[in-house]
UniProtKB/TrEMBL annotation:
Domain Glycosyltransferase 2-like, residue spans: 4-158
Organism: Candidatus Gottesmanbacteria bacterium RIFCSPHIGHO2_01_FULL_47_48
Keywords carried by this UniProt record: Glycosyltransferase, Transferase
TM annotation in the entry: none
Protein name: Glycosyltransferase 2-like domain-containing protein
CDD domains: Glyco_tranf_GTA_type
Molecular function in Gene Ontology: glycosyltransferase activity
Family: Belongs to the glycosyltransferase 2 family.
């Protein structure tokens, strides 16, 4: 079966080259790589164009900046594969990642899969470690060990099923990749051993930007009760003491800087959700 790997890109000059190099080394060879530039203003497009000289099965598409959901949909509309694989520019992969990810689909056991074998790529960076500590309480893996064997986000899916769902909803921001599961009323099943690595924000401005995006998602701002709850949860007044506590608990002294910044960014997005704001980065 032919595979189409789809990557939305928006100002990813630091990471897109490594991502593409990693995909070029996949042991599963019947695949195409489709990169969709979502209106980048940095050197992302130049790096992708240069990669095309070395990667024969690489296609670059361009659109104005409207978000990753729309970018993925554009990529899927041009895909020639029987199975779509959705990844991000800040990921890198073991050589057998694609083969193991699609194995349950090829065997007819599932319409789509995800992987629990997701690990932190840049744990040598203090802010990347702090991000993982905030989200998962440790610095190695990025999926909880007790996570169930089904998930609402498809990392791979039959193109026919993706088309049946009419793609991702494009106006929900951070959780756009949940929308296919909702429309199909089914979840992805785990693909054992599909190991990959994900990069966390590495600078305080990147932490602020990513946390602002997270703060826009519907699970934090979907209704008035959620908004009020998360205004209390991420109140900067409490973040300083929580940051000091986390620094001691995790033995990561810079967590006391990270935590107030992270919470302030989420708090800002939740506050602005009472007004009109774009849900894109």
């Amino acid at each position: 079966m032919k595979i189409s790997v789809i990557i939305p890109v928006y100002n990813e000059e630091k990471v897109i080259g490594s991502c593409l190099e990693s995909l070029a080394k996949q042991t599963y060879k019947d695949l195409e790589i489709i990169v969709i530039d979502d209106g980048s203003t940095d050197k992302s497009v130049a790096i992708i164009e240069n990669s095309k000289l070395k990667i024969a099965n690489l296609l670059l598409l361009k659109q104005k900046h409207v978000g990753p959901g729309a970018a993925r949909n554009l990529g899927a509309s041009k895909a020639k594969g029987d199975i779509l694989v959705f990844v991000d520019a800040d990921m890198e992969f073991e050589p057998d990642f694609v083969g193991k990810l699609i194995a349950p689909i090829v065997a007819g056991k599932s319409i789509g899969t995800f992987s629990k074998d997701e690990y932190l790529l840049n744990k040598n960076n203090v802010w990347a470690r702090c991000w993982n500590l905030e989200r998962f309480g440790q610095v190695d893996w990025m999926v909880p060990r007790n996570y169930p064997n089904t998930a609402p986000v498809f990392r791979a899916i039959l193109k026919s099923k993706f088309d049946e769902a009419r793609g991702f909803d494009q106006d929900v921001g951070y959780t756009d990749d949940w929308s296919v599961s909702r429309k199909l009323k089914t979840q992805a099943t785990v693909a054992p051993g599909a190991k990959f690595y994900h990069r966390n924000p590495e600078t305080l401005p990147e932490v602020w930007k990513q946390a602002r995006w997270i703060g826009k998602n519907e699970f934090l701002t979907g209704n008035l009760i959620r908004k009020l709850y998360n205004l209390a949860k991420y109140n900067p007044f409490f973040a300083i003491s929580l940051g000091v506590y986390g620094s001691i608990k995790y033995r990561e002294r810079n967590f006391f800087i990270f935590k107030p910044l992270y919470d302030a960014a989420v708090f800002t997005s939740v506050t602005l959700s009472f007004l009109s704001q774009s849900k894109n980065k």
